[in-house]
Amino acid sequence: MKVISACLIGCECRYDQKSCLDEGLEQLLRDGKVIPVCPEQLGGLPTPRPPAEIVGGDGNDVLDGRAKVIDRTGRDVTAEFLAGAYQALRLAKTVGATSAILKENSPSCGSSFVYDGHFAGKKVPGAGVTAALFRRHGIEVKSEQS
Ligand code: SF4
Q1: pLDDT tens for residues 38-62?
Q2: Which atom of ligand 1 is least distant from the CA of 109?
């Protein structure tokens, strides 16, 4: 069993209440091979919600207390992102998942790139909070692009 970002299999859980449906990945759900999670909803954030970016580093820095997650209104949503990451990890461990397919570029789910914290559309190398936490617990993380 793998974990998958819920937006990739059609859940309208993105900040703008849209999905990022990937029909090839949706088949994995039909086949019972993936469990969908949305860390930001699991952390208690509403949908829709203001977009958020990591300020001061990537998800690893958030886990270590060196960076924060701030939404476009300036609200600090670090606690919600951390809570959601740990909830997602709990679900992953419950089903024995050893790998995950997570949505690239997201401050939660990005595995290779995240936005740089300036809300200017610029991506930088790094992982989202959930992707970083999964890796620390031995769960292999790939994106829908890899
Ligand atoms: Fe998709 Fe992850 Fe963002 Fe939820 S937190 S909408 S699963 S990219």
Answers
A1: 999 999 999 999 999 999 999 999 9
A2: 2
Furthest-apart CA atoms within the chain: distance in Å:
41
Instruction: Determine contact, residues 114/53, Cβ cutoff 8 Å.
Output: yes
- Structural domains of the chain, count: 1
Which strand (E) or helix (H) includes residue 82?
A: helix 78-94
- Residues within 6 Å of ligand 1 by CB: 5-7, 13-14, 38-40, 103, 106, 108-109
Q: How far apart are CA 40 and CA 130, in angstroms?
A: 9
What's the rounded Cα separation, in Å, for the pair 36 and 100?
10
β-strand pairing of 123-125 with 113-115: antiparallel
**Structural domain of 22:** 2-143
Pairing of strands 68-71, 52-55: antiparallel
**Would the pLDDT of 146 be above 90?**
no
Cα(9)–Cα(113) distance, rounded to whole angstroms? 21
